[in-house]
From TrEMBL:
GO terms for cellular component: mitochondrion. SMART domains: Nfu_N. This is NifU-like protein, mitochondrial. Pfam families: Nfu_N, NifU. Residues 17-106 form the Scaffold protein Nfu/NifU N-terminal domain. Residues 220-241 are annotated as: Disordered. Residues 232-241 have a biased composition (Basic and acidic residues). It comes from Candida viswanathii. InterPro entries: FSCA_dom_sf, Nfu/NifU_N, Nfu/NifU_N_sf, NFU1-like, NIF_FeS_clus_asmbl_NifU_C. Gene3D superfamilies: Fe-S cluster assembly (FSCA), Scaffold protein Nfu/NifU, N-terminal domain.
Length: 241
């Protein structure tokens, strides 16, 4: 009884997280210096909606914070994408507090066993020789640089007939304004340089991301039309009396 009462008054250990900015102003990288986050060293997992985060209690908890747009988990870091209107000054302390509370309590796993098993099954799928070469190049030359910026890249497939490599950008790189340059000038150029069979690299989007992208393009087109119409009206001479 006495021992239990002492333990109840012992201060809770706090983990420390270092935050790093990324090329994307709406994404921040949180680095854990004391404890692993994802239980797999060579994997990252991204969740763009709370529904996708059903098998990650940690990501699901972060989605409850107003302003959190997506969460990517890595072995010793995580990247949070926020809504543009939400300032980091108010969002960052809340994220760190939730992270510390979740990881120190150890009441729930970061990801469920079902998700771990699914990831392991995907790793066991046999690759063609070309696919293995592409995967090795991405893992050794491309992925480390992207992870340094709080993002990640996932190889989704390779069409040997057309020479098209399909990838999925994650974390900070997914919604960064420079993502197209990263895809074409960086990833595509390197793969084409080392593997002559590669002719193109195409980014795969989730259904939710495709809808958001089409909506953004529609709004951008509408704004441009309104702007051009306004300019044409201003250029017209005023009617004479």
């Amino acid at each position: 009884m006495f021992r239990r009462s002492i333990q109840s008054f012992m201060p809770r250990r706090l983990y420390h997280f270092k935050t790093l900015s990324t090329p994307n102003p709406n994404a921040l990288k949180f680095i854990s210096e004391e404890c692993p986050i994802l239980p797999m060293e060579d994997k990252t997992m991204e969740f763009s909606t709370a529904f996708q985060a059903m098998h990650s209690p940690l990501a699901l908890m972060l989605f409850k914070i107003p302003g959190v747009n997506s969460v990517m988990l890595g072995h010793d870091f995580l990247t949070v994408n926020k809504q543009e209107y939400m300032p980091w000054a108010s969002l960052k302390p809340e994220i760190v507090e939730h992270l510390d509370e979740f990881l120190t309590s150890k009441k729930q796993p970061v990801i469920t066993k079902e998700l771990v098993d699914k990831a392991n099954e995907e790793d066991e799928l046999a690759d063609t020789e070309l696919m293995s070469m592409i995967k090795e190049l991405i893992e050794t030359r491309i992925r480390p640089a992207i992870q340094d910026d709080g993002g990640d890249i996932e190889l989704k497939g390779f069409d040997e007939e057309t020479g098209t490599v399909f990838v999925k950008l994650q974390g900070a790189c997914k919604s960064c304004s420079a993502s197209e340059d990263t895809l074409k000038s960086g990833i595509e150029s390197m793969l084409m340089h080392y593997i002559e069979e590669v002719k193109e690299v195409v980014q795969i989007l989730d259904p939710e991301e495709e809808i958001a992208m089409k909506e953004f393009e529609r709004l951008e087109h509408k704004l441009k039309n309104n702007s051009s119409q306004q300019s044409s009206h201003e250029d017209q001479a005023p009617p004479s009396l």
